[in-house]
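Forum: Protein Structure Q&A
Topic: Joint prediction for protein chains with partners

I've read a bunch of threads here and the consensus seems to be that you should model interacting components together rather than docking separate models afterwards. I'd like to see that in practice. Below is the full input, 362 residues plus whatever partners are listed. Could one of the regulars post the assembled result?
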Amino acid sequence: MKRSEFTVSARRTVQAVFGRSLSDVPSAYPDLFRKADKVCLVFGSGAPRSLEVRTLRLFPDRRNAYFRFRLPFSEKAKTMEQAAGLCSFLFGKGFSRDSLLIAAGGGAVTDLSGFAASIYMRGMNWVSVPTTFLGQIDAGLGGKTAVNLGGAKNIAGTFWLPSLTVCDTAFLDSLPPGELRSGSGELIKYAMIGPAPLRRSLTRHMSEALAGNKAALTACVSACADYKLRLVSRDERDETGVREVLNFGHTAGHAFEAMSGGRLPHGLAVARGIRFALIVSRETGLLGGADFEALNGALDRLRLPPAGIPMDMRRFSALVSRDKKARSAGNRFVLLKGPGRAVAAENVPARVLRKAFEGALK
Ligand SMILES: NC(=O)c1ccc[n+]([C@@H]2O[C@H](COP(=O)([O-])OP(=O)(O)OC[C@H]3O[C@@H](n4cnc5c(N)ncnc54)[C@H](O)[C@@H]3O)[C@@H](O)[C@H]2O)c1
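Posted by a regular:
Agreed with the consensus. Here's the joint model:
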């Protein structure tokens, strides 16, 4: 068990624990669990039974007093109605602000549960237990919570850090290969934006990790999560630009995800969004030709399946300009000046957007 703790402010820290086949987390964090008068475990529908068994190994139910709440399958969980349903359930069972929510699942489960935890009685403690590769390197970390609205991703949400994040890579043993592959989009993001040691480590482990090698997966999870939590602790609310680099590939990626009507998994949409961002970086003169070839070649090696998205430039432009990351500008993207050198750019011309859109979906 590797324990990490990053200071956010004088009163708050980000705590996380990593490892494989962990057990009895409460004994390592007695304060958090001792004061919890009630505990609710949140799972997603469709997850294997082993996920619940493993979660109970992490958090043994000594008082035989755990409640369980099940969310609909995957992205269908991320609605206001589901958040209201979970809050009503907690209220009906007498949960207080001292109670604890434990969310075990993919990014959809942790996004929705974190959102409900942030609004229930104006905020209760929660523990994030990401069980997908994408969740363990990204979605389950950092306290950005969200629901989707009007067919667009993550339109309503909060910043609400979990009291603890538990990344146990044994969960990944039951992950279908497609879900492991979906994580590749976020993994390659870190391999492009991260500092040199992280980039070197991911280059060394990436292909083995994506082939399911357990040690390589654990190495990638630990390295990516460490980097992300470090950025989060310096810019919890995404206000100073420190955390913004993590949005590399995401503005276009979210648009692709929405345009696919939910058929394109988040990580693969992000991988396409990264290709989009690389082309914009080159076309706006930020990224030199040799760097572009090297970075784009790394994406090629992922052998992305066809995107299956309509070539609807008008809809794409509307989605990227309405993205919350655009703020008041017409559009705003995180681009690259070179490996590990991310910058934000606004109001990218329509000609460049079209070229990158077509190149990203090829
Ligand atoms: N909050 C953030 O910072 C952040 C960052 C990136 C992505 N996200 C969000 O995360 C979501 C995507 O997350 P995801 O890729 O984890 O997808 P997901 O939550 O949809 O889960 C994918 C599938 O994996 C299954 N699953 C989960 N754990 C499993 C396991 N251990 N074994 C077998 N099957 C398992 C689930 O039942 C589901 O069918 C999107 O909604 C995205 O917007 C959030």
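The chain has a mean pLDDT of 94.
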